[in-house]
Amino acid sequence: MHFRDTYSDEYEMYEEMFDPVKNDRQARRSRRSRIHPASKERAEIVAELTDEIETELDGGFRITYQPSKYEATWLLQSLLPFYGQTLITDVLALIKGGKEASVYRCRAHPSTGLDLVAAKVYRPRKFRSLSNDAVYRDGRTVLNENGKEIKATDERVMRAFRQRTGFGLRVAHTSWVMHEYTTIEKLHEQGGAVPQPILSAENAILMSYHGDENVAAPTLHEIDLERDEAERLFDEVMRNIEMLLALGWVHGDLSAYNILYWEGEIVLIDFPQVVNCHGNDHARAILERDVARVCDYFAHQGVNRSPGKIAGRLWKRYAEIPLRDRLADASVDFPPDED
Ligand SMILES: Nc1ncnc2c1ncn2[C@@H]1O[C@H](COP(=O)(O)OP(=O)(O)O)[C@@H](O)[C@H]1O
Ligand SMILES: [Mg+2]
């Protein structure tokens, strides 16, 4: 999904301006501090754009949720593709605003056959300093907006990506969003316990909503389970870790904070940092951490398992390449003599 091309500069400006962690007053103050003669032109452009978006809002995309002024611009810009494709008709509430993303409860368009849907809108600021993400990105391909791998031979894109130019940061951002979306898609296809993916856009993903009209599903860390249910759900989490590993991936941020619980069922969420278990040297340690965090929660619910053993067994089964195969691979490096 693309925004108009002329957007790229303005998009960057919104990134600079929009920081929902600040309250409105702080945001206004920081905006005012930017309006000095040298940046007057910029400020005027932003003001015009804001008006334009508010007009678009009046023209159709009217939402119940009352965002702050700066959140509004970012939110509407990010969700416009879903509105344009008649997938959502309204934004009802902010479910949770986190460090990396905000998730909103939206009214689904009747054509989807759903009543409510969840839209995850990514916070742009994070992508200004990608150093934290390096450990996850190692061994991972760069994905374009269609979820397709950008070839290492695409020099223009790869150079921009490496050099962190404005364009490169957008490529990195899109790749981050698409790793989350394509992972949910793959797991969902295989019967994994994840939200149903609906559509991805440049800065947001749309998926099935878990919860009801008034409250979103709690995360596991917010609730206690009966022993029997805990045993069943522990197995279900492990089934999903295993399914993902069989696809070649480790969640990378799994814990009771990223598992939703609703009416006896769970779904795993929050996948943008998935780690390639075959191409990343830290993958095993990250798998061990995921399993340990899950075991830690379930231990408090009366289910005691050995995370080290579980992770070791999973790793051996799905990720460890037997020496025999490694040698077979190595032989490819010696092409047959053509003479
Ligand atoms: N599909 C969904 N249905 C209901 N609530 C959701 C859904 N996806 C996410 N949430 C809520 O939004 C929160 C943040 O989502 P998450 O993907 O974990 O992003 P973050 O990177 O901000 O942690 C979750 O803890 C959960 O409360
Ligand atoms: Mg999360």
Task: Provide keyphrases for this structure.
339 residues; alpha+beta; Phosphorylase Kinase, domain 1; Transferase(Phosphotransferase), domain 1; 2 domains; five-stranded antiparallel beta sheet; two-stranded antiparallel ribbon; 11 helices; disordered N terminus; disordered C terminus; binds adenosine-5'-diphosphate; binds magnesium ion
Walk me through the structure.
- With 339 residues, the chain is of the alpha+beta class.
- The chain folds into 2 domains: 7-208, 2-Layer Sandwich (Phosphorylase Kinase, domain 1), CATH 3.30.200.20; 220-325, Transferase(Phosphotransferase), domain 1, CATH 1.10.510.10.
- Helices cover 45% and strands 14% of the residues.
- It contains 11 helices and 9 strands.
- The chain has helices at residues 7-17, 24-34, 40-58, 69-84, 134-137, 155-163, 166-189, 227-246, 283-300, 307-318, 323-330, and strands at residues 88-97, 101-108, 116-122, 197-200, 204-208, 249-250, 259-262, 265-268, 275-276.
- The strands form 3 sheets. The chain has a 5-stranded antiparallel sheet with strand order 1-2-3-5-4, with helices on both faces. The chain has a two-stranded antiparallel ribbon with strand order 6-9. The chain has a two-stranded antiparallel ribbon with strand order 7-8.
- A hairpin with a 3-residue loop joins strand 1 (88-97) and strand 2 (101-108).
- It binds adenosine-5'-diphosphate and magnesium ion (MG).
- Magnesium ion is lined by residues 257-258, 270.
